[in-house]
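Subject: for your reference before the review

Hello V.,

The reviewers asked for a structural picture of the protein, and I figured it would be easier to keep everything in one thread rather than splitting it across files. Below is the amino acid sequence we used in the manuscript, unchanged from the supplementary table.
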Amino acid sequence: MTLRLRILSLALGAALAVLLLFAVPLLLLEARSASDDLEQSATATARGVADYVSASGSDRSEVAAYVARVNEREDDTPVAVVAPDGTTYGADLPGATTAAVSGTPDDPDPDADGDRDGPFLQQSGADVVTVAGGRLIRVQVRTQGAPTTVLAYVSDADVRSAAAAHLWPLAGAATLLVLLVGSAAELVSRRLVRDLDRTADLADTIAAGDIVARVPETGPPEVRRVAHALNGLAGRIDELLAAERETAADLSHRLRTPLTALRLDVELLPDGQRTDLESHVDNLERTLTAVIHEARRTAREGARAGCRPGPVLTASAAYWQPLIEDQGRPVEVAVADELPEVRCAAEDLRAAIDALIENAIAHTPDRTAVAIRARVDADAPHLVVIEIADRGPGFAADAVRRGRSDRGSTGLGLDIARRCARASGGELVVAREAGWTVVRLRLGPAAPGPAQQSHRGI
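And here is what came back from the structure prediction:
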């Protein structure tokens, strides 16, 4: 998971956790509030019907008609009236008969306050009876003979619907809050990751060999500190490379001076004693030149070694063409167009190809066919394959080991090619295919330079 996604998930997770902590008690509170509101509305409806029953007396037809009109209202609570003899008017409510005869609601003493208003106090207090699927609000009215019970029904489904109606706006507000938090986290993560990407790009650029590049020291303090450290590291690497070049130049000067003096002393010797010593001095001078040349490789090529293999292979084939023609060898040169750059210095690649072609010529009879090919690897398009093949008898598989040869040579040619392939991130493969001895170099791609660096997405 990327840093940007981590920041985004952390912010959204924290916001959702806070909303969840508020949502649970809020859900319970809204459910309780909706239940209380519906019970109060049902109580008001029941008391209104009870007032009408107490005013109409024993005229049951009027009571039945009034209750029917009340139940026809869409926004009102279902109501039923249970007469003293058990006759029920109005809606068919669950548990109505049982609620009418079970218990007695709170019926205050008519003269408890001493003001003698008992004859005018016709209704009892309202109480709640739990039934299947909801609750009944029960109010009893004093009528002749026995009390008449008025019941109003509040269903659990209505309570849930009322609570949901109150919660939908809150859910919309919570969703909007989550979106705002996500947008803010995305903005912050983009700015932070952008600064980190610039810093990482500098590290990649330095690794690719551009030690002059520097990253702006902007962003949060921690990112600025990392950028400052990388800029200092790049400067230090530049200083070390300059010191290395100076050391190599100084080494060249110091070693060549005594070597020149040694050559002059050798020239003063008699001819019979001078020949071997001159040969040794020449070998020493060539070795010293090779060592200095290798030490200055970084100064010549930079930290990023790379070349186009096509021109190198073409030049090597052209160099060996006269000898191949003199020996009457059929030759095939097939170099694909636009081969990608490989992670190998041109001089090293040329030395490896020359060693392989020389092996193919030196260890096979005259008129033996030779093939020189270069293409992109079909299985791994980022690799370049160079093949030097011949129709000779082949050689042992362990000939690629340094110093090993089954043909009387030094055995270093294949090792040079193998080290070149491995240095580029590839490999050297020796195979026998359809009568051909094939030495195959698989070369890895060159590291991208500063202009080729791909910027990370933000």
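For the response letter, the relevant points are probably these. Residues 355 and 413 are 5 Å apart (CA to CA). Residues 221-301 form a domain with the Helix Hairpins fold (CATH 1.10.287).

Happy to draft the paragraph if you're swamped.

O.
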